[in-house]
Amino acid sequence: MGCAEENPEEKPKCNPFGTRFLTDDAKVFEHNAWDDVEWSEEQQEEAKRIVENQQSMKVDEEKAMRLLSAPADQWDAFYAHNENRFFKDRNWLLKEFPELDVNEACNSENVTVKILEVGCGVGNTTFPLMQVNNSSSRLFLHSCDYAPNAIRVLKSQEAYDPEKMNAFVWDITQPTPEEAPAPESLDYIVCIYVLSAIHPDKIRKALSNLMSLLKPGGTLLLKDYGRYDLTQLRFKKDRLIEGNLYCRGDGTLVYFFEMEELEALLGEFKMKKKVMHVDRRLIVNRAKQVKMYRQWIQGKFLKPVEL
Predict the structure, then answer these.
(1) N or C, which end of the chain is more exposed by having fewer CB within 10 Å?
(2) One CATH from 1.20.58.760, 3.30.2350.10, 3.50.50.60, 3.40.50.150 for 25-37+70-237+252-302
(3) Nearest alpha-carbon partner for 133 in 213, 214, 211, 188
(4) Residue 159 above 60 pLDDT?
């Protein structure tokens, strides 16, 4: 399943985001979701107005300082309370990132494919990836999270296989721990809703740490929250910290990116864009006749081979 990579300005021709397009507004409630839905100018202006109004309802400074001083603590408390009962397995991974089915590469090239999943939580990406690639003896999956309770829960599950997996605690804004993979050893790094959990001032350090582990020719696969996603627009009082950085009710942080912003960040590390796309999806509650607009950013970036 190949995507358009020659012209990165194009949307992926393999269309991993779905092919149900809304061409008749009168039929909007016939399905639960529609793909690649463009916003009207009025919707864009309304979204900007909502975000501007949030500026007058910021989190108080003392609370903001507390949340920003130890962001991992909020996620650690989250996993201590929820264990593995909250998030669903990401069984959609291969639809958006078909590269992660490494069976063919492993079998044909007789090499070990090494992947690092960042922000692994309790294994909702880890275990689906291993299940897909269970016929391969040459996949090794590193999984890290900065919440010790997440790693504890992941490693306690029956499906955890230390012969094929290495789960470890790491705040990617800090130096790499001993358990981390060797420099320039990884074929893929997977970041799903990871960069949005980091303060914008620390993202460059996090990317520098990650890129040092990716081998020349290796690929960064990412998905994260887009600017004016429904989640951002629904935030009320005491959620905005600064800019486009918010805290959820449980204290965890979330930042909303523009596509050009993420591309520029990765460009600072000489990463070459293969594919980048804003996944605009209209989710429909047919029973309540409610429309919900979601926006995610998906990208694939290649680390150049030094000449």
Answers:
(1) C
(2) 3.40.50.150
(3) 188
(4) yes
